[in-house]
Amino acid sequence: MKFHLVSGACGFVGCNTVKQLLKRTNDSIIMVDDLSVGTHPSTWLKDSTTKKLKDIEIFGKDERLFFFKMDFRKFLNKLQDEPNWLEKEYGLKIERFADAFHFAAIVGGRAKIEGDPMAVALDLSIDAEFFNWIAKSKPERVLYPSSSAAYPINMQTESDAVALKESDINIDGFTLGMPDLTYGWTKMTGEFLAKIAAKNYGISIVCIRPFSGYGEDQDLSYPVPAIAMRAAKKENPFEVWGTGKQGRDFVHIDDVMDCMFLAMDKIHDGTAINIGSGKLTSFIDLIKVFTKFAGYDPQIKPLIDKPMGVHSRYSDMSFVKEKLGWQPKISLEEGMKRVYDVAIERLKSGKV
Ligand SMILES: NC(=O)c1ccc[n+]([C@@H]2O[C@H](COP(=O)([O-])OP(=O)(O)OC[C@H]3O[C@@H](n4cnc5c(N)ncnc54)[C@H](O)[C@@H]3O)[C@@H](O)[C@H]2O)c1
Question: Which residue windows are transmembrane per the record (predicted)?
């Protein structure tokens, strides 16, 4: 039996990956999350049948989802100290993990990235443990989520913004710029370690640089569902962080998943690829999309003391199209409509 490993499995990208693995395979999945941000699997799994096995939980009627609520570093330390720990303690005989997806990280959005950069720097310690572990245990394939935050910030200013290409970061050719704070530095370091993992340890690994991923199952602390909810409530004046002219590349999580799984099949040498829509949308334009759904035209109220990050961050998707033959399928309007419909449902059910 194959076992996949998903760290940060209860966060936004992690839980979507688990759902995809359930759909795409019949394999077993080890999920690790300390629930510092993510929510318990019973809140997002369709089949939340649960069975306890000592301090872990097994989900689903077919019992192929194993949930370890713990710090991922502790999980890896236990595996390193006692390689047969999972078999001895839980009867899980895993000679070698199949796919290892590493989503455990302190992310937290703009307020956290700017407001508590040292907390975000802890990602270096989570990633260091992960890369050490893969070098020793050699899972069949590894997915490392980097981020568009790894790109040089001087390419994202109001006057100089360009569509960001993978070649704008060239670790092998020594072309690096200044990434976005500690968050971006961590991702850049992760990409460097991924290259070393492939080259020096023979690991099959791919890095992805998702731009602004969003989805209808995202928590209201994320900007897209929060804006959708405020539009559903017909907020007027409509508050926006910064001037609202800053732009991002919004990409639906289903597209992220689609591209990620394809990339794992096709890339093995640590190469990093963009996952974006290739389009720049300002926050004001995003608000207009939602308020159009809601059928009103509010006054925009900029909150200029709030953090707004770089001015314009968007992807050039031509390398992905060329290398993987992949293009995003979900338009901004379609994806945002899905988020808006969920906001309306949440409002009606009083779940906000
Ligand atoms: N969401 C996006 O659009 C996006 C874009 C670029 C990159 N990424 C990257 O993808 C990864 C996942 O992002 P996300 O949006 O799902 O974030 P998230 O905050 O929703 O999920 C992270 C999960 O990790 C868990 N976690 C944190 N520290 C942990 C630890 N020490 N041990 C165990 N679990 C821990 C949290 O509880 C949470 O469930 C991150 O590395 C992030 O940088 C995401």
Answer: none
Residue of 5, 6, 7, 13 to mutate, ligand 1, most atoms within 8 A of C-beta: 13
> Residue 38 CA: which ligand 1 atom is closest?
39
- 242: phi > 0 → left, psi -120 to 50 → alpha, else beta; which? left
Q: Is 30 helix (H, G, I), strand (E, B) or coil?
A: strand
DSSP code for 161: -
Spell out, as residue ranges, where the chain has pLDDT lower than 50.
none
19 and 130 share a domain? yes
Q: For 69-158, where are the alpha helices, taking DSSP H only? A: 72-81, 85-90, 109-115, 117-120, 123-137
Our count of domains for the chain comes to 2
| Residue ranges making up the domain that contains 59 | 3-215+252-278+313-330
User: CA–CA distance from 118 to each of 111, 112, 130 (Å)?
Assistant: 13, 9, 20
Report whether residue 16 contacts ligand 1, using a CB cutoff of 6 Å: no
Q: Which residues pair with 170 in a beta bridge?
A: 175
- Give 12-37 pLDDT, tens digit per residue: 999 999 999 999 999 999 999 999 99
Nearest C-alpha neighbor of 211 from the set 291, 297, 150, 160: 150
Dihedral angle sign, alpha carbons of residues 4, 74, 94, 270: positive
- Residues 297, 177 share a domain: no
Residue 116 alpha carbon to ligand 1 centre in Å: 16
